[in-house]
Amino acid sequence: MPDKNIPDIVIGRLPIYLRALQRMLAENRHVTSSQELGERLGISAAQIRKDLSQFGEFGKQGTGYSIDYLAEQIRQILNVDQVWDIAVVGAGDIGSAVARYQGFANRGMQVTMIFDNAPSKIGSKVGSFTVKDIANLESDIKRGGVKVAMIATPSEKAQEVADKLLSAGVKAILNYAPINLTVTDDVRVQYIDPVIHLQRMTYYL
Amino acid sequence: MPDKNIPDIVIGRLPIYLRALQRMLAENRHVTSSQELGERLGISAAQIRKDLSQFGEFGKQGTGYSIDYLAEQIRQILNVDQVWDIAVVGAGDIGSAVARYQGFANRGMQVTMIFDNAPSKIGSKVGSFTVKDIANLESDIKRGGVKVAMIATPSEKAQEVADKLLSAGVKAILNYAPINLTVTDDVRVQYIDPVIHLQRMTYYL
DNA sequence: TAGATTGTTAATCGATTAACAATC
DNA sequence: TAGATTGTTAATCGATTAACAATC
Q1: How do residues A108-118 score in pLDDT, each as one tens digit?
Q2: Is-contact B152 B88, C-beta < 8 A?
Q3: So what's the pLDDT on residue A155?
Q4: Is B115:B89 a contact under the CB 8 Å cutoff?
Q5: Angstrom distance (rounded) from CA A33 to CA A89
């Protein structure tokens, strides 16, 4: 069954499973079980088995899952058995940190370009990248065939940037600006706002 | 009813509502409705009314919600009508970006200290902060009465840092290291890993 | 008053868990 | 074989939505 409309909440857990599996591999582990994985992640074993069963049968009764094999299967499901090029828009503190971030390696992502609109930044170096002029955003992204972008501009510019990204063909946006974006429904948006996470915790303090 | 065990998923939406309300205020708006808010956020009006009704009656039939008043109520619920001091651990790209981040202002959070273990960084400046020695983490955090921290260290150090934070009395941790933390259950943890968000989107591409 | 929108109830929908036969 | 763990079904649990009386 290639695609029987999997709940998005299940898709959301797959990257978590994958990250844990890659961590286990780094610890030189080769086999795991839904129970062990669940304990590490604070998720029930039944839920992990149910989630995985949406996509196929990846385990063996009695022994569990081959970590290598399961990781590879999840990578294929998530389309991260390839490497996605990412454009970063905004070369301030956050954009620069993200462009230099080492954590994309081996996880199917790589930053390939970074844009800003400030003359003082255009042409300067951020890590190994030369900051590009945001005026060329659409043509550069189109030429590069880039489908994934991260917005790290001030809130006021974020929607405008998003509109340009869409017309350049971007289909997935990770938005660091603390504002909701309006996009066409063939485009995915995810949000990272540390304050949202922090406020969610202070309720309990 | 001060506390009838509100679902965590409801708590998780309150910061989103608050952010949208503050945005509306910045646009000089003074009244809104569950319908308008829902359209902006992609959430049903019924859900917003249901969520809010868990905490009290904040609206007026026929006219909707006073944005100012509702924002203030949500701030009180989330305990962000005060300002929480935050300790940042790790003065690399991410820790430095977070320490300098302007987005905490008026949202109940402020960074007050940043730590690292590298002699080359200790004593140097990150924004207006002088990087402190991680060796003094426990005593500095205890003395400051800090309850909220962000971890921006390499994955290998994150659990060790978390342990120290707990013994220093920290009760809420926002973890940027791509690894699951184990903590006692009086402590809240939230995670930010851009790759998790990106992989969640590439499934659909 | 007429129109609009809340707060809340009941119905629906969807997600999680428990349990177990199958089988490695 | 005996023990362990999967994949899956059915039962439970919880969250969302629809609908509407109350009322501004």
Answers
A1: 999 999 999 99
A2: yes
A3: 96
A4: yes
A5: 41
DSSP string, chain A: ---S---HHHHHHHHHHHHHHHHHHHTT--EE-HHHHHHHHT--HHHHHHHHHTT---EETTTEEEHHHHHHHHHHHTT-SS-EEEEEE--SHHHHHHHH-GGGTTTTEEEEEEEE--TTTTT-EETTEEPEEGGGHHHHHHHHT--EEEE-S-HHHHHHHHHHHHHTT--EEEE-SSS-----TTSEEEE--HHHHHHHHHTT-
Banded pLDDT at B1 (limits 50, 70, 90): very low
Q: Read off the tokens for B181.
A: 């933390």
Write out chain B residues lying below 8 Å of A200, CB-based: 11-12, 14-15, 78, 190
Phi/psi at A112 (nearest 5 deg)? -125, -15
pLDDT tier for residue A2 given thresholds of 50, 70 and 90: very low
Chain D nucleotides close to protein (CB under 7 A) are 2-9, 14-19, 21-24
Position A3 confidence tier, pLDDT thresholds 50, 70, 90: low
CB contact under 8 A, A79 and B19: no
